[in-house]
Amino acid sequence: MKPLVIGYLGPRGTYSEQAADIFIERELKREPSIHYKKKPLLPIPQIFSQLEQGNICAAVVPLINSTAIYRHTLEGLGTFNGERFVYKGSLDLPIRLM
């Protein structure tokens, strides 16, 4: 079986990857027969483009952080949500700065 590809705002090791891991745990691990792999992508418009083209089956993108709202995420959700994509929810991920 071909794995499901989950795109996220890369590179590896970011908070977006951490959020993708949580998404996979919540949404995909319920079905042990589902295999998946994560794919880091840049920039956010590329993530939506890959989703639209069918190269990834799901996307994890940041919406807001401690200093700003991600405009490209809002634009992507506004353009595609309900037409081609289904919004699954949001996650508050605590960020610790050292």
3D architecture notes:
α1 links the parallel β1 and β2. By secondary structure, this protein is α/β, with parallel strands linked by helices. The longest helix has 14 residues. It is 35% helix and 15% strand. It is globular and about 40 Å long. A three-stranded parallel sheet has the order 2-1-3. It contains three helices and three strands. The model has no long low-confidence stretch (mean pLDDT 87).
Could you state the order of secondary-structure elements as H and E? EHEHEH
Query: Taking strands numbered 1, 2, ... along the chain, how are they ordered across the largest sheet?
Result: 2-1-3
Average pLDDT confidence is 87
* Sheet with most strands: 3 strands, parallel
**Residue share in helix:** 25-40%
Task: Tell me briefly what this model is.
The protein has 98 residues and is an alpha/beta fold. The chain has helices spanning 15-28, 44-53, 71-80, and strands at residues 4-9, 36-41, 58-60.
